[in-house]
Amino acid sequence: MNTKIKRKTIKWIILGIVLLILISISTILYINSYYIYILGEYFGVNCEKIEINKVYPEDIVQFTLDELSSNDKIEFNQSMMLINTDFPLKNDFVPVISQYKDTDVKMNNCMHDAYTSLSVAVTENTGEKIFISSDYRTDSQQQEEYNENPSSATKPGASEHQSGLALDIYSPYYAGFSFIKTEAGQFVNSNCWKYGFIIRYPSFGKNETGIKYEPWHIRYVGEPHSKIIYNNHLTLEDYILYYENDVWYEIDGYLISRQTLSSNNTLKIPKDYSEVVISPDNTGYYIVTVLKNK
Fold first, then answer.
1. Are residues 98 and 186 in the same domain?
2. pTM given for the model
3. Which of 148, 214, 244, 275 is catalytic?
4. Beta bridge pairs of residue 61
5. Are residues 40 and 177 in the same domain?
6. Is there a catalytic annotation at residue 214?
7. pLDDT tens-digit map of 225-254
8. Beta strands 217-220 and 248-251: pairing type?
9. What domain range is 143 assigned to?
């Protein structure tokens, strides 16, 4: 073989090897970028634990549901409902839902403003947009979903989508698990708690939730619960069932109590408060969340 041709051949072989190495390194870095991120979320590297302390307020008063519902400083909503196969929705459950802005999307009334804030924050921080692929579902729609995807969908009654509190979101061309590959997906997973949402089925939570990691499925619980759940590295199951009946806890400037409705339809709240949110938890209790007067 001509020496000149030989050198040229060797040159192209070396160039090909270099390109192959560069492509391999780029591929590894691309794959690792989101797997490393998931690993960080699994171990809670960004979490800052929040203390949960039992307290014994002296100014607790009983109020009937009628008295509470007529007070404009007290909000009743459905944000703290635990919905799963162990605690399915009751047959008489009626979600409080409406259309989101001028879209066909239906979601629970308590989360409209929160979703707007989250959506704006995603775009401001990543330059990307998020969209909703699945919102509120009726019982019959959930049955259809379960019939089509029995390995991934839950049976009617056990789906959060039937409460209007859950949304499946995506970025263009990145739906389902691939959502976590995007900046928007990683921002949502690390920061949605700041807007009242949690990743309902986190990477670390399958033993408690029974469902594998779904980085696209967000669930509204409201503040301060989203902050506590994320930073204490909890699932919603862990969180709701942590609270003892009729015990008050002081957490991050809030008083929180899980109560049963008394025989005369009363719940307890402190006299001194700035605002109160009361939600059934779908396990037979109410979660009372009190922002104290400063």
1. yes
2. 0.88
3. 214
4. 269
5. no
6. yes
7. 999 999 999 999 999 999 999 999 999 999
8. unpaired
9. 54-291
